[in-house]
Request: fold
Amino acid sequence: AQSVTQLGSHVSVSEGALVLLRCNYSSSVPPYLFWYVQYPNQGLQLLLKYTSAATLVKGINGFEAEFKKSETSFHLTKPSAHMSDAAEYFCAVSAGGYQKVTFGTGTKLQVIP
Amino acid sequence: EADIYQTPRYLVIGTGKKITLECSQTMGHDKMYWYQQDPGMELHLIHYSYGVNSTEKGDLSSESTVSRIRTEHFPLTLESARPSHTSQYLCASSEEGTAETQYFGPGTRLLVL
Reply:
């Protein structure tokens, strides 16, 4: 069984401030972990993914996430928020292969000018 | 340009009508998925396919049906729409492999009156 928990359905940050979106996972096997972003009226787009190589994963648009096995976490960060980062972010987990992907409930990021 | 398309983008229909949501991808992916997305909730997998003539039900019980006659086409049909079917429907595809990225269409927002 696998699951993800995203802490905080809404997060607000000021433009230029640090972005931190939290994700904790549960998996009975070593997981593959993903962050997707969804802009209004669009589908989801991959930001980054962890595939058991480097624990610090860099993605698009300046985002990165760190896999911490001891904490079962895969938090998403960006040093300086931009107005264009306002969107909904989804964490997801998979056991790989033909196993399905389980998505979290999403976190809406608001960036305040 | 490789992409995934969904039509219509928005649909308002009356109860009891039969509808088909279209999904097509030009990436040659064997795996395709349909998700249901409601505000504040995780994406629910309702159907998936691993190739032509392969269809499976997902985790969320759905009264819809799908078909996969061609690799690029994965339509979803509701024989008799009900207000409980009101939701956003996202189509996605992915290539073969481990921890493969899913590519999402823009979604169809359905309102059943």
About this structure: The radius of gyration of chain B is 13 Å. The interface with chain A takes residues 4, 6, 9, 35, 40-43, 45, 48, 50, 58-59, 90, 92, 98-99, 101-107 of chain B (CB under 8 Å). The mean pLDDT of chain B is 92. DSSP finds no helices and eleven strands in chain B.
